[in-house]
Amino acid sequence: MELIAIGHKNPDTDSIISPMIISYYSDSLFGHYAVAKRAGELNNETKFILKYLTESTIKLPELLKKVNKEEVILVDTTEQTQLIEGINENNLFAVIDHHNLGGLKSSKQIYARIEPLGCTCTVLYKILKEKNLEITREVACLMASAIISDTLFLNSPTTTDEDRTILEELNKIAGLNLKDYSMKMFKAKSSLEGIETNEIIEKDYKFFEMGKSKVGIGVWETVMPSTVNEKKEEILEALKDKKQKDGLDYLFFGVVDILKKNTYLYLVGDEEINLAKEIFKGNLENNVMFAEHIVSRKKQIVPQLKETLVL
């Protein structure tokens, strides 16, 4: 039976790079070769990273829309709602993640490693070191890029001291100018080139079941929030359409200002406005709330919504 490594739908950089790293070391880690797969299209930041590593020998994950008979090494999520069709309790082989437990079940014993760190690649680095596996410059560059991305270059509240230390250790091998490189990454992430309005809200979008409520939360991380906010009316219309199409009770979309560490939270209707007023208490103007010092969906938005909605 084929073994695959894959992350969540609408993959971010960590959810692309983690399967690549697992595939590269899979024989040593699991005694089986695992093929890296991806559950969606690459974003512009990930494209920049892979283009930067022009001499990469690690294969780009192929797109997979449905799991059939494959066994699955799941990374960067344990939320069933964020998985492609076919991943279930009978075909899970392993889970490596840095989020909360999302309710996945397994019908058999599996390898599971979940730690409260800023990035799945931070967890993977620890695993590689424990196994005394050599980390090449290419691997170091990839893993450093994932950590930079997920922690907003160590500025997200999800960042831990271990993320900081491991990024420093990786860069001893990678030899990157981290400040310059991270800014280039974030400019690529911010680019709207070739991006339609519906893609802006769906590129980094996750679906959650919170009690009886179906909740969608999308974010767009950028160093140029004005380029997104100038499309405000188009975005709000697209959000209304998506909320209706997906049958959601609540839909939130945040434009995250990476540099100033704030979020412009787009609120589709009265339900979202009332909930955001209660929880986030930011300044509201024409369906957009300015949420100061909020940059993390994982730590500053999802838990707060769950605390209110799961009663």
Identify the notable features of this structure and list them briefly.
311 residues, alpha/beta, inorganic pyrophosphatase (n-terminal core), 2 domains, six-stranded parallel sheet, six-stranded mixed sheet, 11 helices, 12 strands
Write the layout of secondary structure elements.
Blueprint: E1 3-6, H1 13-30, E2 34-38, H2 44-52, E3 62-63, E4 71-75, E5 92-97, E6 111-114, H3 120-130, H4 137-151, H5 161-174, H6 178-190, H7 197-202, E7 205-210, E8 213-222, H8 225-229, H9 232-246, E9 250-257, E10 262-267, H10 270-279, E11 283-285, E12 288-292, H11 297-309
Parallel strand pairs: 1-2, 1-4, 2-3, 4-5, 5-6, 8-9
Antiparallel strand pairs: 7-8, 9-10, 10-12, 11-12
Commentary on this structure:
The protein is α/β, with parallel strands linked by helices and 311 residues long. It is 41% helix and 21% strand. It has eleven helices and twelve strands. The strands form two sheets. A six-stranded parallel β-sheet has the order 3-2-1-4-5-6. Strands 7-8-9-10-12-11 form a six-stranded mixed β-sheet, sandwiched between helices. α1 (13-30) packs across α4, α2 (44-52) crosses α6 and α4 (137-151) runs antiparallel to α5 (161-174).
Number of helices: 11
- Would you tell me the overall average pLDDT? 95
Beta content: 15-25%
User: What is the CATH C level class of the largest domain, in words?
Assistant: Alpha Beta
Assign the structural class, choosing from mainly alpha, mainly beta, alpha/beta, alpha+beta, or little secondary structure.
Answer: alpha/beta
* Fold-level CATH name of the largest domain: inorganic pyrophosphatase (n-terminal core)
The number of distinct β-strands equals 12
| Termini gap | 42 Å
Reading the helices and strands in chain order gives: EHEHEEEEHHHHHEEHHEEHEEH
Poorly predicted regions are: none
Rg: 19 Å
Structural shape: globular
Tell me the count of domains. Answer: 2
CATH superfamily of the largest domain: inorganic pyrophosphatase (n-terminal core)
